[in-house]
Amino acid sequence: MNKSVLIALTLLAWSTLLPVTIANTVQGSTNHAIKMSSFNLSSQKWQNRILLVFAPSVDNHSYQQQMQLLREQTSGFTDRDLVLVQVLANESYANGQPIDESSAAKLRDRFGVDKDNFRVILVGKDGGVKRQDARPVKATAIFEQIDAMPMRQQEMRQQGRK
């Protein structure tokens, strides 16, 4: 299975399993714990772009609005090698999979985002911050910015040749 199909399947699962559902499973009454994995931003360098959504909780209005805006455009994530990372005060996810608190804390520290704040940050494949928003932002605006990047322009030219 190629990487694009795997990313598409992950995003499909993510859009079906909202963080509330995942959080309830993690903290639910079952005795089966979901394995938390670590997330290292540097391991994504030159492979993926990262869209970080920081929020106090899934109940945060800005967070809910942002997730709705992103759910409307999930197919665009795959095309742009874009990984969604949700960093919440009590739970965090990378493409819908739970990540450990240590990884989340490192992301908060690196980008200077307190547990009580909402922020959307786009990180390019080169590891640099390309965009920061303190309010929910439309996925199309993020995609347009990515599509204007030289590396993405090159990717689109190469995809056109296939």
UniProtKB/TrEMBL annotation:
Coiled coil (residue ranges): none
The name this protein goes by in its record: DUF4174 domain-containing protein
Originating species: Dendronalium phyllosphericum CENA369
GO annotation, biological process: extracellular matrix organization; positive regulation of cell-substrate adhesion
InterPro entries with a match to the protein in the record: DUF4174
PANTHER family (UniProt xref): COILED-COIL DOMAIN-CONTAINING 80-LIKE 2, COILED-COIL DOMAIN-CONTAINING PROTEIN 80
Keyword Signal: yes
GO cellular component, one term: basement membrane
Domain DUF4174: residue ranges: 41-155
Lineage: Bacteria, Bacillati, Cyanobacteriota, Cyanophyceae, Nostocales
Residues making up the signal peptide according to the UniProt record: 1-23
Protein keywords: Signal
